[in-house]
Amino acid sequence: MTTNRPARGGRDTEQMAPYEVARIFRVSPATVTRWARVGLLPSTRTQGGHRRFERAHVLAHLERLASEGEADRIRNATGGD
């Protein structure tokens, strides 16, 4: 379930739960939590201690992974290192 919560500065941002992010990337929620722990995907915590991810950060991470995959595909096709 996504929710809109006021972020710092008073603007609304769409927040996502780990299971929602996991569905997008086709990984487990534990993997998403691990990404947050190591700093690959920024997150915030609710007052109850649950992680939430800003949709813009999730989409940026998805684009990064896609562009890295495309670069790898081109590198492998051309025989470059």
Give a verbal description of the structure.
There is one protein chain. The protein has 81 residues and is α+β, with helices and mostly antiparallel strands. It has one domain: Multidrug-efflux Transporter Regulator, Chain: A, Domain 2. Helices cover 52% and strands 19% of the residues. It has helices spanning 18-25, 29-38, 55-78, and strands at residues 3-6, 12-16, 44-45, 51-54. The protein has a four-stranded antiparallel beta sheet with strand order 1-2-4-3. β3 (44-45) and β4 (51-54) form a beta hairpin. α1 crosses α2. The mean pLDDT is 83.
What is the secondary structure topology, with strand pairs?
Elements: E1 3-6, E2 12-16, H1 18-25, H2 29-38, E3 44-45, E4 51-54, H3 55-78
Antiparallel strand pairs: 1-2, 2-4, 3-4
Helix pairs in contact: 1-2
User: Would you tell me the overall average pLDDT?
Assistant: 83
**Which architecture name does CATH use?**
Orthogonal Bundle
Total separate domains: 1
Task: State the share of residues found in helices, binned by percent.
Answer: 40-55%
CATH topology: Multidrug-efflux Transporter Regulator, Chain: A, Domain 2
Order of helices and strands: EEHHEEH
CATH top level? Mainly Alpha
- End-to-end Cα distance, whole Å, is 42 Å
What's the helix count? 3
Please tell me how large the radius of gyration is: 15 Å
Sheet/helix structural class: alpha+beta
| Major sheet size, sense and barrel closure | 4 strands, antiparallel
Tally the beta strands: 4
- The share of residues in extended strands comes to 15-25%
Biggest β-sheet: strands ordered side by side in the sheet: 1-2-4-3
Low-confidence stretches: none
Give the overall shape, derived from the CA principal axes: elongated
